[in-house]
Amino acid sequence: MQIRCIIQLMIDSLMLLIILAVLLLVAGYFVMTYNRLQSLRNGADATLSQIKVAMKKRLDTIEQLVDSIESYAHFERQTLEKITGMRSGLQEAGAQELGRVEKESRGVLGNIRLVAESYPDLKTSQATINSMNAIRELEDEIARHRYTYNNIVQEFNTMRDTFPSRWIAASMPRLDYLSFEEDELRRAGYYTGEETEPSRPKVEWK
């Protein structure tokens, strides 16, 4: 009788240990998954901030180019106001809004390049060359950060959409990809620059 009681006690203890182990594993998975999701969100926010800084620097450089080109061509006041508006709105902009800023800033930059092509002295100016090179470097930096950001977003959204991690991420909204549509279409060979060319500000030649 005593032996039977001892065996039953051992079984009960083993079951309790198993239950505790399962609970610990579930709790550990919950903590690890939650921390990973938070880490991804923080990483996305930090990378997006780096993109905003690079985009602001590019807008600053574009504005300097517009100022330097004023002696060759007169831009509408709306152009400078647009640059100022894009720059001031960067801080609070989300991924989708940054895509719009990218499209508009490329439109302004495209017009500047058009002006530079029309004036050999301006095109070969060291100041213009340096500014254009700085813009290219900033665009490369933006592209690198965007690649990192979108990879983070992909992992976060995948965890949010798949079981069992989606239960833990139920209260967390999806993250938006940072997509610059024209760049993607151009890389894929579908964009020629004629169908959906960004609208460019008007310019009056002097």
Automatic annotation (TrEMBL):
<dbReference type="InterPro" id="IPR007156">
    <property type="entry name" value="MamQ_LemA"/>
</dbReference>
<protein>
    <submittedName>
        <fullName>Lema protein</fullName>
    </submittedName>
</protein>
<dbReference type="InterPro" id="IPR023353">
    <property type="entry name" value="LemA-like_dom_sf"/>
</dbReference>
<feature type="transmembrane region" description="Helical">
    <location>
        <begin position="6"/>
        <end position="31"/>
    </location>
</feature>
<dbReference type="GO" id="GO:0016020">
    <property type="term" value="C:membrane"/>
</dbReference>
<keyword id="KW-1133">Transmembrane helix</keyword>
<keyword id="KW-0812">Transmembrane</keyword>
<keyword id="KW-0472">Membrane</keyword>
<dbReference type="Pfam" id="PF04011">
    <property type="entry name" value="LemA"/>
</dbReference>
<comment type="similarity">
    <text>Belongs to the LemA family.</text>
</comment>
